[in-house]
Amino acid sequence: MHSEAQTFGRQLAAKAWLKKRETELAEPGALEQLKAADPFLADVIDEYITTSLKAMGKTKANANA
C-alpha cells in the first residue's frame, strides 16, 4: 500500500492534485519506480559522510562510532 500527504489552502486544489497523482500512479510500473527511488536511511547517511566537504566535528564523529 502506498500513502502520500499534501497540504492545500483550498479544497478544489486538493481534489485536482489527488486526481493528477492518482493518474500518475495508475501508469504501469509507477509504484515500482517510486519504491526503487526511496533509499535506506543508512545509505543516505553513508553518502553524506563520504561526500561532505567539511570534516565532521567531535559530536558527529562520536555519534557514528
The percentage helix is 55-70%
Instruction: State the separation between the terminal residues, measured CA to CA.
Output: 35 Å
Outline the low-pLDDT stretches: none
Beta-strand share of residues: under 5%
According to DSSP, the number of beta strands is 0
Main β-sheet, in a few words?
none
Q: Tell me the number of helical segments per DSSP (H or I, 4 or more residues long).
A: 4
Shape: elongated
Structural class based on helices, strands and sheet pairing? mainly alpha
Oligomer: single chain
Q: How confident overall, as mean pLDDT? A: 84
**CA-based gyration radius:** 19 Å
Query: What is the helix/strand order?
Result: HHHH
How would you describe the overall organization of this protein?
Helices cover 62% and strands 0% of the residues. The chain is an all-alpha fold and 65 residues long. The longest helix has 16 residues, at 11-26. The protein has a domain at 11-55. The mean pLDDT is 84.
Provide a brief overview of the structure.
This protein is an all-alpha fold and 65 residues long. It contains four helices and no strands.
